[in-house]
Amino acid sequence: MDLESHKLEAFTEAYSELESTVSGLNVLIETYFADIPAKQYKTLTSLKGVTALGFDLVRGTKTLDLIKGEFPKGKYLFAGVVDGRNIWANDLAASLSTLVALEGIVGKDKLVVSTSCSLLHTAVDLVNETKLDKEIKSWLAFAAQKVVEVNALAKALAGEKDEEFFSANVAAHTSRKSSPRVNNEAVQKAAAALKGSDHRRVTNVSARLDAQQKKLNLPILPTTTIGSFPQTMELRKVRREYKAKKVSEVDYVEAIKKEISKVVKLQEEFDIDVLVHGEPERNDMVEYFGEQLSGFVFSANGWVQSYGSRCVKPPIIYGDVSRPKSMTVFWSALAQSMTSRPMKGMLTGPVTILNWSFVRNDQPRFETCYQIALAIKDEVEDLEKNGITVIQIDEAALREGLPLRKSEQAFYLDWAVHSFRITNCGVQDTTQIHTHMCYSNFNDIIHSIIDMDADVITIENSRSDEKLLSVFREGVKYGAGIGPGVYDIHSPRIPSTEEIADRINKMLAVLETNILWVNPDCGLKTRKYSEVKPALKNMVDAAKLLRTQLASAK
């Protein structure tokens, strides 16, 4: 990371202090996920009591030049040439030539072949993937295969090269480079054509909000939810059985229709202003879209840890991305036909799809992101054509892709925000574009969030104890609609009407009345109906209480 001099000095002092304690032990300092800046490298290689140094040479290609320039004599180098962050087969020939060059610098007996980081971030074993397409499978390596690659490279370095293994690796790389499944010329041309524009909507946000208000006729402090409603056991069972072909398509559609109708009636009962269909047909906010986009493939058992004991199964983006047909229009149009209130179309944004997938490593990430953005743009425009006037494009993972070092952050934010704008630059002024973000510290990227130019942003606020509001207290001007979450959906606790009203009042102290929305922090998928119902009722009651108070104050 960007470390100031006093922090680097702290490392030097700490290891000097530790030197006598670690005497007789082999201490390996392992770093990963980025290049090591020259100043940090100098500190690291001068630390006392250290026997070996490990570097990520997949994401840290510039570190390689520093090692070639100077490496401390007599120390071991753990060369992280096998990627621990992705699921692609290693280019063994390229890795071997890197290792041979390093051997010349550090000596044969001081070089250790390693992964770039721990294998926590990759799936466990390809052996478990019996249904995966054979050609695509040959391009992959999960954790177990990466261990085999490390051993094969170490043996080749010692003069015991497994020619058959290396030849199969070359064949797999050749097939991946030339495969028509990877390359789609039309998609590449469309993505290349994006470079000339920054894809902003023609009218500014305040004029758009006026046009939208004339059409939607919402009260002040409009209420909405983020998207998902509780995913009950029965619902999961229906989806599972439909996938296993135990339930016919007609019966499946009927079951989902029933669930949507229940969710719509519930929201109308509570008098929520902008409705959602509850997403009963969706398994996961990225997987659902990945399954319907070309260029994606799914593993059966490629689980990785997300946080705590929660695991996810990321899609694998192996080729150029396009949308063969509409993905959400059927369900959104159906839901809109059940109510006279505005029904939000619900989409996952391109940056979140990218950051929550295993991404192809044969082109820059931003190119893949632009391709996904064009696919989502098609969906946005189809929703609009089908009478959906409020469309939410979630970018929950926007901040997750932020590089560790400040010098690289502006470039990432520039293409990430641009990708979001691509998705909705073609809609009419009267179509209201929402986005949603959750569970990150947004204060340091607030200007990029404003630059996304969404009409309304709903954003996590309660769980982080209202840290978000501090940025507005410090004078950041925000002119679009904004809904900082009024209660934490990750807790089973039901907030009272007074508590929510108190939160809204804190928001009104720093935000204009005419731009403030009232909503929970996040989707309700993980909660029970016994928790959701009273919480939403209290949320709407709080909004109504404040409307009355504001009207009498006027």
Structure keywords:
554 residues; alpha/beta; TIM Barrel; five-stranded parallel beta sheet; 5-methyltetrahydropteroyltriglutamate-homocysteine S-methyltransferase activity
Derived from helix and strand composition plus strand pairing, the structural class reads: alpha/beta
Tell me how many strands there are. Answer: 13
Number of helices: 20
**What top-tier CATH class of the largest domain fits best?**
Alpha Beta
- How far apart are the first and last residues' alpha carbons, in Å? 52 Å
What best-fitting shape do the alpha-carbon axes yield? globular
User: Overall pLDDT, averaged?
Assistant: 94
**Percentage of residues in helical conformation:** 40-55%
Q: CATH topology of the largest domain, what is it called?
A: TIM Barrel
Q: What topology, given as strand order, has the largest sheet?
A: 9-10-11-12-13
Task: Specify the CATH architecture of the largest domain.
Answer: Alpha-Beta Barrel
Q: Biggest sheet, in brief?
A: 5 strands, parallel
Flag low-confidence runs.
none
Q: Give the percentage of residues in beta strands.
A: 5-15%
Rounded Rg: 26 Å
Q: How many domains would you count in the coordinates?
A: 2
